Amino acid sequence: MTITSLILSLAAANDIRQDIAIIPREYYEIIRERNESSAVPLVPPLENEVPDIYYIVLDAYANSETLLEFYGYDNSEFVDLLEAQGFIVPKNIYANYPRTALSVASTTNMEYWDALVPEMDKVRSWWPTKHFLEKSIVQSSLEEIGYTTISFANDWGLTNNKNSSIYLQPYPILLTNIEDYLIRATPLRLLQKPLQNIMPIKTHDVHRHFIRYNLETLKEIPEMQGPKFVFSHIVFPHDPIVFDKDGNPIQTKNKFSFSSPEVTKDERQKLYIGQVEYINSQMKDVIKAILEKSSTPPIIIIQADHGLGLSMTFNPNENQCFQERLSIFGAYYLPGKNLDTLFQDYSSVNLFRIIFNEYFSTELALLENRFFFTQESNLFAGMQEITPKVKIFCDIE
Predict the structure, then answer these.
(1) Any domain includes 397
(2) 121 pLDDT higher than 90
(3) pTM beyond cutoff 0.70
(4) What's the CATH number where 350 sits?
(5) Which stretches does DSSP call E strand in the chain?
(6) End-to-end C-alpha distance for the chain, whole angstroms
(7) Residue-wise pLDDT tens digits, 169-201
(8) What is the dihedral of CA 312, 313, 314, 317, to 10 degrees?
(9) Is the N or C terminus of the chain more exposed, i.e. has fewer CB atoms within 10 Å?
């Protein structure tokens, strides 16, 4: 590899915003100091009643009404099964942000971003969210009372949390986005095949393996001793399209990407619904294993980070369908509690405020529901509040 090609590759990699920190050092210090001093004092339940907590994020899983109204798919069979097992499955719940990093970090820090880090309003990068994902208030609060925190790796990367007590990954070495790019774009790609089972670059087969690894390993977690907080972000049914409804691999000659495939909208909906059906079938087995193997009834949270959003772009000059993007699927197994009414007017920022209040004797106020829009090339900069527009029905035809 020549020096010129290396320089050009590094310059191109500079465009991968997830790994570039264009942020003043003093902003990072503000983030670190504020976040690390924010654990919530929790009162643990009696020793034999401390529940494991599973927080499973199914990426881009729309709620049942959106699936029916926008995509013509009736998800009632899966919802009925969950409710028969004791889950609360609200009809209308919403994510507060349309991007994974913003949504999940807001949920696990129980706060809106303009309150978490008001100084970040001019920052364009994804990078500042990483600290809040790795050292969330929820994680630190539970660790303070003796919980073991367990997190799973995925091939998207930003929600991977090596700061948890136990970090589970299906490959010995996981490449960063820049490392992955350099191997693809330079003669280093000659190393791809012999090293693919050790430190794989992103492919559709690797993506399938991450999904299967998360689903299968979740079934084994209850056998670990002691109270556990388990976080699994499964990048599915989000793109890419890799499984049909029966779990058969969908083969494609397209390069791997987390973006939508180049197909018609009708075909896109059909492929997405196939992935919804597949994850439904797999989650049935995951839930069954967790409930049967847990010595104490666990708290199980299955919640999307955002919806699909076929009719929403991140261009502020275009008409948007916020309802489609921010309406999310959520199912909550909350043993010993009758909390249906709390989830009738609910958004994800309040999830762990409810959990902590009900199980750990806190008195956290529930926040007013607010919703936000971010632009294509920015994450924080130019963020707009869109609360009045979220529940306006829009036609995606």
Answers:
(1) no
(2) no
(3) yes
(4) 3.40.720.10
(5) 53-58, 93-94, 148-152, 166-168, 228-234, 299-303, 330-333, 346-347, 372-373, 384-385
(6) 49
(7) 999 999 988 888 888 888 888 888 888 999 999
(8) -100
(9) C
